[in-house]
Amino acid sequence: MSKVAIVTGGSSGIGRATSEALAKAGYKVVLSGRRQTELDNSEQLCLEAQPTKAPENILTVAGDVSNQEAVVALFKAAVDKFGRVDVVFNNAGIGAPDVAIEDLPVVTFDAVMAVNVRAAFLITQEAVRQFKVQQPQGGRLINNGSISAHVPRMNSAPYTMSKHAITGLTKCTQLDGRAFNIACSQIDIGNATTALGDTSAPKAQPSGHDLVEASFPVSDVADAVVYMSGLPLTTNVATMTIMATTMPSYIGRG
User: Fold this and answer.
1) Strand-strand pairing, 4-7 and 28-33
2) Chunked in runs of 10, what are the mean pLDDT values of the chain (254 residues)?
3) Is residue 185 domain-resident?
C-alpha cells in the first residue's frame, strides 16, 4: 500500500520540489499552502511525476498552518481521503528583510514566529495525535531547519531564532515519540536555489565584503527528504545538513 505524505509550504520552492519527488516515488501526497492557484500548479507537477498518473492520489488543502483550525482541517482531510498519514514534511516557513535588528518592526518578527515556530508546533502536535491513534501506530515527521540553526547570517535574528526553536522541537519530538513508533528528523539546508533562498545576488559576509555564494539545486533537497521518508521507523536520520560544497562561513572560517 502506498504511503501518505503531507507537505506544508507545498505551493512553491522546497515544498513543491519535495512533493513532486514524493509523488514520483509512489507516495500519495497532501499539499498544504496558502495560495490555491500555486497549489494547483504543484498538484499538476505531482500528477505528471507519479508513475500511475492518478489524480486521486494527490490532494490539495489551502489554509494558513499558523491557525490551529486550519491544521486540524488539513489532517482531517488527509485521513478522510487516504485513511492515515505516514510522513509529514514540516516545511512551511518565511524569512525577514535584511535590516539591522534595531530597525526591524515587531510585527515582522511576529509574522516570522507565527509561520516558522507556531505553525511548526501545531503541525507537530496534530501529526503526533494522528500517529498515536492510527494502526499500525507511528509515523515520521521531518522538520525543515536551516544552517541558520547553527551559523546565522548577518541581520537575520528573527529567522535564526525561529530555526533554533525548530531544533528544540525536533529533539523533544524525537524523545517524546519513542514509545509510539514516531521518528522525527531535521534537515538543515544551506543555499538551495529557491525563491526564498535566492543565491544569485551578492550577500554580505562577516568580513565586510559581498559575495555571490555557491548554491545547489532544490531537487537535491527533495531527494534527501524522499530518502529520509523511506527509512523504516526503526531507523532515523536525526539531523541532516545539506549544502553547497563550497558555501562559505559554515565549515571553517569564511
Assistant:
1) parallel
2) 94 96 98 96 96 95 97 98 98 92 96 97 98 98 93 88 97 98 96 72 72 84 98 97 84 62
3) yes
Give a yes or no: residue 156 inside a domain. yes
| 250 given a catalytic annotation | no
Of the CA atoms within 13 Å of residue 160, those in its CB half-sphere come to 12
**How far is Cα 116 from Cα 83, in angstroms, rounded to an integer?**
28
Domain limits for position 38: 4-243
CATH of the domain at 228: 3.40.50.720
Q: What's the pLDDT tens digit per position in 65-116?
A: 999 999 999 999 999 999 999 999 999 999 998 899 999 999 999 999 999 9
Residues 6+ apart with CB under 8 A from 213: 191, 199, 203, 244, 247, 248
End-to-end alpha carbon distance in the chain? 48
Domain membership flag for residue 171: yes
198 φ, ψ (degrees, to nearest 5):
-65, 120
3-state secondary structure 169-207: HHHHHHHHCHHHCEEEEEEEEECEECCCCCCCCCEECCC
SS3 label, residue 237 = coil
CA–CA distances in Å: residue 11 to residues 87, 92, 108, 247: 18, 10, 22, 27
Whole-angstrom distance, CA of residue 23 vs CA of residue 29: 6
Q: H helices of 99-156, where?
A: 106-113, 119-133
Q: From residue 225, how far is each of 78, 87, 90, 242 by CA, in Å?
A: 20, 10, 11, 11
Q: Which residues are bridge partners to 32 per DSSP?
A: 61
